[in-house]
């Protein structure tokens, strides 16, 4: 057990809403098509003037408010987004500024695509356990709308923008990460990608407009993830010394309605244990897992003494699971 | 002390060399101008077909070779670059593939701009100390040439491409991180930046060709860093219980020749203790510190029983220092 305590959670949504009915009209689909194809009723979308770091800061302030803590009490900020705000510097610098953290508060990014929050939580627990930090803010914020390709019927309809944050401290007895596993399978590195944004595709080396847009081979992701997940999850639970029945609440990456339903059924997880905010948020990239965790906390499903399983797949292809004793 | 052991180091340089004489000719400067302005005699530049992850994998294989270890023995890869290869997925996925790591080996990114390696080393030590991993590869690779603006007299001449890697295991008695401090001052967030590459500047929201290029206000960086560094370094050394005379070798970020010389003089660090590879490598962004550390290791200046100080400034603006007992 790696001791870590979830002090509080928070979330933020951007100012604009986009219903599936609106998308049907905008994209010229028959009424009901977008909801049927995506499973999303409502997604939230940032206005042009809203930034990823502003949304992150709003989520962080919600988490601070929920614990009655001042921003000045944070002694490390970890940004755990799927996509950066700029190529340079790290997104954490922008969030630190927007959140009004004390100048000098250290800030860096952890990135494991849609599982950045899970990786960041494991990193934060390691840092808290080895000294130097007492209260860490971990924030995920993604604006998928900035890279959605509206001509892609599959990948364009499922996403929503959003941010969520947690405040972490060293855990007491029985509190912490009971098991953690992350596995990366680069054979799936091109199944989900945005090719531009770094050293590979850019004006100097050559870039096309489509390189700035999100590309997904959903079938390939589903096939590889379905093949890997059962034994992955068995291995993860073996680390806990318990089986899946010991889990009180499952917080999955809100990848897609079919993906979540299929995974729960195949893995033998009762639907009532699964936090499902997909229909009203869509897939929020790295912000999905902490947003769902926040909903579980404020609804009382994840409370001290319970055990949560965070799990999901990410671009890379990476699969991950984390068992958290709250 | 956070126990961590530097098992081995490695580096890689891209295929092309670019001397300051060649740059004088290419940019129409008088003979000697580029060297005088930059302090760099020779920089290494990736050919168009070379990728950041290929270079990273070459550095990782050099580190593996130097410890006679197979790639299959790595149980976690942390990519610690300054700029990503793509906006999505994480650069670590590409490095894992290029390096031929075992499928399933977990891989994620840590980003603190030019100090990503230092942050990654602290993160890795925390992970090793809290279980689950026994041998971590930490790799930094940057291709600054993909974003250099040749019309910028100050920022264009100092950079070079490169990569470096270290293999890390849990440390024995007296081995590890004796002190670590990272401080982020967002007032300097725009002093060094590449505005495109993420959600802030892109074809959807608006982007200009210059947004893909590196921008630096060198004077502002120098002024802020000079103001902060003395008390920062005193605080860092106070954590060790020793003073600067206990440091055997200083491994600075190779930011610029004037910056390094000024910092050493102002901080009272004897020049002979400072690893300076700048003239033959330039500023290699996040790859500078691990490349300099590698040179210190292979030259015998950093060996078991010695104490190294890693230090530098990064876009953000972030300043950092790490005292490593080898």
Automatic annotation (TrEMBL), chains A, B:
Residues 239-325 form the Beta-ketoacyl-[acyl-carrier-protein] synthase III C-terminal domain. Residues 108-185 form the Beta-ketoacyl-[acyl-carrier-protein] synthase III N-terminal domain. This is 3-oxoacyl-[acyl-carrier-protein] synthase III C-terminal domain-containing protein. InterPro entries: ACP_syn_III_C (IPR013747), ACP_syn_III_N (IPR013751), Thiolase-like (IPR016039). It holds the Pfam family ACP_syn_III_C. Keywords: Acyltransferase, Transferase.
